[in-house]
Design a protein that fits this description.
heterodimer, A: 5-stranded mixed beta sheet, 3-stranded antiparallel beta sheet, about 45% helix, B: Ubiquitin-like (UB roll), 5-stranded mixed beta sheet, 2 helices, 5 strands
Chain lengths: ~425, ~100
């Protein structure tokens, strides 16, 4: 990226911290976020910012402080929402990620069986077959978009399977996922307005409500997310509360989609940036699971989660007021050298590689983490069976978003074995 | 030095000497016992060192609210479920039998 492209972003080293917008999504688009967060960890690890497109908020940037906040769910609530921006009250669509105990536990338990490792075994052969087919169909000797043909393709198929969604319409799931996370206040104005997002939510809620009624009472022994909700007495009538149904659908669509998709692309980028790590994995396939965890750390597909203070409190010498927003920067925790040795280097055989912040901590820890790891593991097992090289042919295009860290395009060529 | 017998889900047994001052999770990691992931390294914030304490000679510390929160989300929770990172080995606890779950999540 040309230096001039970031001229309109203030220099994170020399500008007073009070003049910097920590949430500016353009730093993620230009991939120049690291110095600002390094400075915050050093100079102001619990940092208050009075103004931003999302209003005032605290930034927590050290690994151990983020763990401490996530453990104290009574002081740091997940209600009303977990992204930096607030939804309008009348349109709040609660899901278990935006709930505290006990309601969180009740709704999460209903859908959790779909990603229990016991059930994942049944998915493994299916995922492997689809992954093999996708990789076999890639063009050789010409540049193509890895995001579209591999990452987006495979994660969309997986999501359709989890919902038992009409196969021909499955591309809708990815379109909705993109729309849900593209609020203009998180994307430097490049995303959708509230009204546009509302239309998207109405569209998917309409389709999913129809699916609910078609399936209700059909007694199929299916483990899809809709029937799981119907089967649990606590969520059996969720369709009658459309906002709660919509909220949980949005959570599952985004949670099962953007995150894995962007890690699937990120891995290609990192292995091009660190070719010696690629050689290490090629010569010892047993490193694949460890590499998968390292990809998830290095990508940090969700750079932040947000909590809201429930009562006036002191945190690390700072007075936080009831109602204050507290943003937990996972991307920063994953580069915190006090916990992760040499954190700015991608290392496939790192010690304690699973101890990263990308899945969060505590009761809201990523529900689908084992499924995500399995999808990524299979992609790399199948890719190493087929390709000598997956060569990046130009810089990837990154999305401008402070909640989803990812790629819209990644030009590559593959060389078959 | 207490002896801990770990029993994997498939019945494979591992009997090891446990050093005082370590947690049961750390003992399992030290001896590469399969079935404990311990993603978060011992903070009771990931729930992936879940185990079932079948026998212990002495009393165990009570389950605190954080451990309870994590155990509460386990689909395979039993009355003897514990997070092994929260159980410190001490000479007074005597020998133990610890069963490992079918999966961690």
């Amino acid at each position: 990226m040309a230096a001039g492209d970031k001229g309109h972003l203030a220099d994170p080293q020399t500008t007073p911290l009070s003049e910097l917008d920590v949430s500016d999504p353009r730093r993620f688009e230009l991939d120049c976020w690291q110095p600002l967060f390094e400075r915050l960890r050093r100079e102001s690890p619990v940092h208050f910012q009075a103004e931003s497109p999302a209003g005032a908020f605290w930034s927590i940037t050290r690994f151990e402080d983020i763990v401490a906040v996530e453990k104290d769910t009574e002081t740091f609530s997940s209600e009303p929402t977990i992204a930096i921006i607030d939804p309008p009250d009348e349109r709040r669509a609660p899901s278990f990620i935006t709930m505290d105990q006990p309601q969180h536990d009740i709704q999460r338990r209903a859908v959790q069986p779909v990603v229990a490792p016991k059930n994942l075994l049944e998915f493994e052969a299916l995922i492997r077959k689809r992954t093999g087919e996708a990789l076999d169909s890639l063009p050789e000797g010409e540049t193509f978009d890895w995001v579209e043909l591999v990452s987006r393709n495979l994660t969309t198929q997986m999501l359709a399977t989890l919902f038992d969604f009409p196969w021909d319409l499955r591309e809708k799931l990815s379109e909705w996922s993109d729309a849900i996370t593209s609020d203009e206040r998180m994307t430097a104005g490049t995303g959708l307005s509230r009204e546009e997002r509302l239309l998207v939510i109405q569209e998917f809620l309409g389709i999913f409500t129809q699916l609910w009624h078609e399936r209700k009472g059909d007694d199929q022994e299916s483990f899809d997310l809709i029937r799981l909700l119907q089967r649990d007495p606590n969520t059996a009538n969720m369709v009658d509360d459309p906002l709660n149904y919509a909220g949980n659908l949005m959570l599952l669509i985004v949670g099962g989609n953007d995150t894995t998709r962007n890690s699937m692309s990120g891995g290609v980028l990192f292995l091009n940036e660190y070719p010696e790590q690629f050689e290490k994995v090629r010569s010892d396939r047993r490193l694949i699971p460890s590499m998968v965890s390292e990809i998830i750390r290095f990508q940090t597909p969700l750079p932040h989660m947000r909590r809201t203070v429930t009562r006036d409190t002191q945190f690390k010498g700072h007075t936080m007021k009831k109602g204050d927003k507290v943003v937990l920067w996972y991307c920063s925790a994953n580069r915190d050298a006090t916990v992760i040795t040499n954190p700015d280097t991608f290392l496939v055989d790192r010690d304690s590689v699973r101890n990263h912040a990308s899945f969060g901590f505590g009761i809201h820890r990523c529900m689908g983490n084992r499924l995500a790891e399995m999808q990524l593991r299979i992609v790399w097992e199948e890719a190493l069976d087929r390709f000598k090289h997956i060569t990046l042919m130009g810089p990837p295009t990154r999305i401008c978003n402070n909640f989803v860290r990812g790629y819209s395009h990644m030009p590559v060529q593959v060389t078959r074995i | 030095m207490p002896v801990i017998k770990f029993i994997e889900f498939d019945g494979t047994e591992h009997e090891v000497d446990a050093d005082g001052g370590m947690s049961i999770m750390e003992v399992a990691m030290k001896y590469d016992i399969p079935g404990i992931d311990a993603d978060c390294g011992g903070g009771a914030v990931c729930g992936t060192c879940h185990c079932f304490v079948e026998e212990s000679a002495g009393p165990l510390p009570a389950v605190d609210p954080q451990e309870e929160s994590m155990l509460g989300l386990r689909p395979d929770r039993e009355s003897n479920s514990r997070l092994s990172c929260q159980l410190q080995v001490s000479d007074s606890m005597g020998n133990m039998i610890v069963k490992l779950p079918e999966f961690q999540m």
